[in-house]
Amino acid sequence: xxxxxxxxxxxxxxxxxxxxxxxxxxxxxxxxxxxxxxxxxxxxxxxxxxxxxxxxxxxxxxxxxxxxxxxxxxxxxxxxxxxxxxxxxxxxxxxxxxxxxxxxxxxxxx
Length: 110
Ligand code: 5GP
Ligand code: ZN
Prior knowledge:
- This protein is of the alpha+beta class.
- It has a single domain (6-106), classed as 2-Layer Sandwich (HIT family, subunit A).
- 21% of the residues lie in helices and 23% in strands.
- The protein has two helices and five strands.
- The chain has helices at 6-11, 59-75; strands at 19-22, 26-30, 38-44, 83-86, 102-106.
- Strands 1-2-3-5-4 form a five-stranded antiparallel beta sheet, covered by helices on one side.
- The longest helix is centred in the middle third of the chain and has 17 residues, at 59-75.
- It starts with 5 loop residues before the first helix and ends with a strand.
- Bound molecules: guanosine-5'-monophosphate and zinc ion.
- Zinc ion (ZN) binds next to α1.
């Protein structure tokens, strides 16, 4: 838990978010500035800065994030039309929140 990390604060319920799923390992909430009709963030409760910082010890949580992304797509009804699962990595990759998160975006009409 990093005091000045907004996603740690959301995971600790110290900051509000529109939470759609939670278990002991991760939390899923709506992106505050959605880039798609459905835009969720799948966030481990453990503070990890970015994909660059994951280690073999994090294999289970990274796997669970992707699996949860698939489940969230099904739950929000975008699984058959299709969706993106996206990691932005560090500043050049568009990352602005330095707590690991997987974007799930979908629901476009096309
Ligand atoms: P990144 O560019 O780091 O991969 O994505 C960070 C995402 O977090 C952005 O899409 C942004 O809209 C979202 N975000 C930033 N701050 C907050 C917040 O306080 N609450 C929520 N729900 N989303 C946030
Ligand atoms: Zn954090």
